[in-house]
Design a protein that fits this description.
The complex is a heterodimer of chains A (543) and B (328). Chain A is an alpha+beta fold. Chain A has 17 helices and 19 strands. Classes of the chains: A alpha+beta (543), B mainly alpha (328).
Chain lengths: 543, 328
């Protein structure tokens, strides 16, 4: 048979080509209108839903469409007035907020006090979302009163001196005429109506967003007319597409090993930003042995954070030597220190009765239980395996034996919810580590502590915090809370990561960082200086 | 209807019920909580009442048996629920993705099958020769390479270095001037993912085709045909290949059913909006309604393809045809 020549039947090839042609014609039938060829194309890693506070509350894209009363966020020392023009503290419980006149929603309806009252009541009383406890609990806003069409009064249940600088700079305002009657907001998929610099005009779930500049934006017309945001989950593909100029920027971090290569590529610029996040080691404070605060303190002392930054993150980022919350937050005590001191860790353990009684290089408690702990982490997180291995080695040096456990994200989440862990690795973002209200809330929710667990020292500080009537006294109490926390940490800050983004500077070069949001947010397209009207003081007026 | 067909229908119904029940159970057995996706990391801050409220809103309240009864009832009414991740009715979400998956996987499947079968026959005919050894080594090597790796190599060469093809997506990002231009751009975006799928899936079919053909070529009737002096081409195509095609057809039908499930890795790497990527996204978000419906879609695809193979097999194999005729 060796002399026989075989060939692919021509009909097969024709069939395949025919199928492809049919597919192309079918796809052609779905064609849409061409958009502006000068549109800025920014690849995003994840779909954020139809951009409303219930579908993508943590997405910076939300800010393109919606505004807050104060901007840009609670993570800066002095948020500037945006939808508000001023906020006046009437007494310890009440604030009067004057709204910006002449602002319209994307559909042309006027923005009024009704929208503000509706928004805050909807977040507080409607279906719960990420903002709910920032109206109902920390702070506790009992009443939102419309005084006239451009004035709103907030009445708190206990003193709320930081309302303007934190809460009003955190919650996006939604349109009452669009949201009234929406009782299932998570299945509300209408395109959003906001007041922001961009209007979402086309949304294809998990595929792309198209936003057009709002020419009537009250802070001036945005610098880029059209934004096209393809959803591209794979970071490698996104960075390749940036090199081929198919996109102009990517909301994907450039990994340290690729940064030199990108820095040498013509037309591409690397922009480092503070992530305002913390890579943390979380001990299980609910169960023995980590219920013991001295053991948690010893763990914090025993971690050589600089070596973690050098070896796992190749020097990108800062060691977590200034504790928790994030040191870049204006609300964090600048004197906080969480040093690496292995000898002191040993002393703390000895003093608490943890000694190696049988010579196996693992300490035992006074009751004879060896210090063997399980460190769980999500294996899909870049660098976490190496991080866990280094922590195991470092903790072994003070007589704590660590077993590593790699889990899928969902499995880890289940473990955490069930409190079935000793230690786990995690990264927590700006809202968790830079918003002082969230620091309080995290001590009530179970993230950093649980409200039903006795903690007299904390409880006393919490009562003092609630009673504080000025920003200064509240800050003073907050600093005491932070110092207490870092002495008995339920989250040990390991690294303050730095994020590096790549953009095509030949296409657009107006990128600006907004702390906690990176560069892919509205302040890259809107002049910040124009945000402050001539008659408005830079600082929030307070009485 | 004849009793045998009733029996077959009963079997399919049983398989479908088991599959539907597993579809309900599997997402719930997986670890993770949809609330974490819906609310974000702050989901732990919800009170018991608030959690119940959100679960009720998502249609996930009540005990598992209650949820199962509600799920089966909704299924009978054709109500597949609302996707937790996308907030839209599940059939709408799937209908948006299915055409893209079929557009990608259909040509890739037929191409891979055609090429692998042709190569398998070619190699079998030259068994032991250099061409056979080369093809065997090459296809086994391709089979061992992960699809995402092949995809990244193709991207680096044909997209970055040569600039011939776009690197991601299914449609031109900024639209197109005409339907024809749009179709052309869609076609260009199919090339690299299709090539990846073809290269990554050649091995299995090639081996099957080669083994099946070698087996056929070793049969007595082939020796008899050669002794009778029939032309080699006729022996291969009319006698050996017709018999060798039977196991290939079974493989073809079973694989065809799985097409609607998409190709997770390739769709993810190329940012292609297919069902495979959708299932992965649904899994990440613990989107139970979407997962259930996606699994059901795949199940139905496999059952239908199986039924199709069952119904058409007698056309290819006269022995089965005669047996069925005798049985009826």
């Amino acid at each position: 048979m060796s002399g026989v020549r075989t060939r692919v039947p021509p009909r097969l090839g024709a069939l395949v080509l025919g199928l492809c042609a049919c597919g192309a014609v079918w796809a052609g039938c779905l064609t849409d209108t061409a958009v502006d060829p000068d549109a800025l194309r920014v690849a995003i890693p994840l779909d954020a839903g139809p951009l409303n506070p219930y579908s993508g509350s943590s997405s910076p894209l939300l800010g393109l469409v919606y505004d807050k009363l104060f901007e840009p966020s609670p993570y800066v020392p002095d948020p500037f007035p945006a939808l508000a023009t001023e906020a006046l503290q009437l007494d310890s419980l009440e604030w009067r907020v004057r709204l910006r006149p002449g602002v319209t929603w994307h559909d042309g309806e006027p923005f009024t006090a009704e929208d503000v009252v509706f928004t805050y009541e909807y977040y507080r009383d409607g279906p719960p979302n990420r903002y709910t406890h920032h109206v109902s609990e920390v702070p506790q806003i009992d009443r939102i009163v419309e005084e006239d069409s451009l004035t709103v009064r907030f009445v708190c249940g206990y003193p709320c001196p930081t309302l303007a600088r934190i809460t009003l700079a955190d919650l996006p305002i939604i349109a009452e005429h669009q949201w009234r009657g929406v009782d299932q907001p998570r299945s509300f998929v209408e395109l959003p109506v906001g007041t922001g610099p961009y209007r979402l005009v086309d949304y294809r779930p998990d595929r792309s967003y198209r936003l057009e500049a709002n020419a009537a934006y009250f802070l001036g017309t945005p610098a880029v007319r059209t934004l096209v945001l393809p959803v591209l989950p794979n970071a490698s593909t996104a960075l390749l597409a940036l090199r081929t100029a198919e996109i102009d920027a990517a909301v994907h971090e450039v990994p340290p090993e690729l940064q030199d290569q990108f820095a040498r590529t013509a037309g591409i610029r690397l922009i480092p930003t503070s992530s305002l996040s913390i890579i943390e080691l979380r001990p299980n404070y609910h169960a023995s042995p980590l219920v013991d605060p001295s053991l948690r303190h010893a763990l914090s002392l025993a971690v050589d954070r600089q070596s973690l930054v050098d070896r796992v993150f190749l020097g990108r980022g800062r060691p977590g030597l200034r504790g928790y919350p994030h040191p870049d937050s204006p609300w964090t005590d600048s004197t906080l220190r969480t040093p690496y001191d292995r000898d002191s860790a040993g002393v703390v353990l000895e003093a608490s009765g943890y000694r190696d009684r049988d010579g196996d290089r693992v300490r035992e408690s006074a009751a004879g239980t060896p210090l063997r702990l399980r460190l769980s982490f999500n294996g899909a997180e870049p660098g976490f395996l190496r991080l866990a291995e280094m922590l195991r080695a470092q903790l072994a040096e003070i007589g704590i034996a660590i077993t590593l456990e790699t889990l899928e994200a969902g499995a880890l989440s289940d473990r955490v919810s069930a409190r079935d862990y000793d230690l786990f690795l995690s990264e927590i973002g700006a809202h968790g580590v830079a918003d002082p209200d969230q620091f309080i809330m995290s001590h009530r929710s179970g993230y950093l502590w649980r409200r039903d667990l006795p903690y007299p020292e904390w409880d006393a500080l919490f009562e003092a915090w609630k009673a504080a009537q000025t920003v200064e006294t509240r800050l003073e109490v907050s600093y005491r809370m932070q110092r207490l926390f870092n002495r008995q940490p339920t989250s040990i800050a390991l690294v303050y990561p730095e994020h590096v983004w790549a953009v095509r500077e030949d296409r657009y070069d107006g990128w600006r960082e907004s702390l906690g949001y990176g560069i892919f947010q509205k302040w890259s397209f809107v002049e910040v200086s124009s945000a402050e009207p001539a008659d408005a003081p830079g600082r929030t007026p307070r009485r | 209807m004849r009793p045998r067909r009733w029996g077959a229908l009963g079997q399919y119904a049983l398989v479908l019920w088991v599959a539907v029940t597993l579809n309900f159970a599997l997402p719930r057995l997986a670890p993770g909580d949809p609330l974490e996706y819906v609310i974000g990391p702050e989901f732990q801050t919800l009170t018991v009442e608030q959690r119940a409220e959100v679960l009720d809103e998502l249609g996930l309240s009540g005990s598992l048996p209650q949820q199962y009864v509600r799920y089966m009832g909704n299924l009978f009414r054709g109500d597949f629920g609302v996707s937790i991740r996308f907030g839209r009715p599940v059939p709408e979400v799937l209908a948006d993705r299915l055409p893209w998956t079929l557009l990608l996987l259909g040509p890739a499947f037929f191409l891979a099958f055609g090429i692998a079968t042709a190569l398998g026959v070619f190699a079998a005919v030259r068994r032991g020769g250099r061409a056979d050894a080369g093809l065997l080594t090459g296809t086994l090597l391709l089979d061992a390479l992960p699809a995402f790796w092949i995809a990244m190599v193709l991207l680096a060469v044909f997209s970055v270095r040569l600039g011939w093809f776009p690197s991601f997506g299914a449609e031109p990002l900024l639209g197109a001037s005409s339907a024809l231009a749009y179709g052309w751009e869609v076609g260009r975006r199919l090339v690299l993912p299709t090539a990846t799928l073809v290269l990554a899936s050649l091995g299995h079919t090639f081996l099957l085709a080669r083994a099946s053909m070698i087996s056929s070529l070793g049969e007595d009737y082939i020796a008899q045909a050669e002794a009778a002096g029939l032309p080699p081409r006729r022996i291969i195509y009319r006698h050996a290949l017709r018999n060798a095609v039977l196991p290939l057809y079974t493989h073809f039908a079973l694989t065809l059913g799985g097409l609607v499930g998409g190709a997770v890795l390739v769709e993810t790497v190329f940012g292609y909006p297919g069902v495979g990527r959708l299932i992965f996204e649904a899994l990440s978000a613990r989107d139970y309604p979407l997962l259930q419906a996606s699994f059901l879609l795949v199940t139905l695809g496999v059952i239908l393809a199986n039924a199709l193979a069952d119904a058409t097999y007698p056309l290819l194999d006269p022995r089965v045809r005669r047996r069925r005729q005798r049985g009826s």
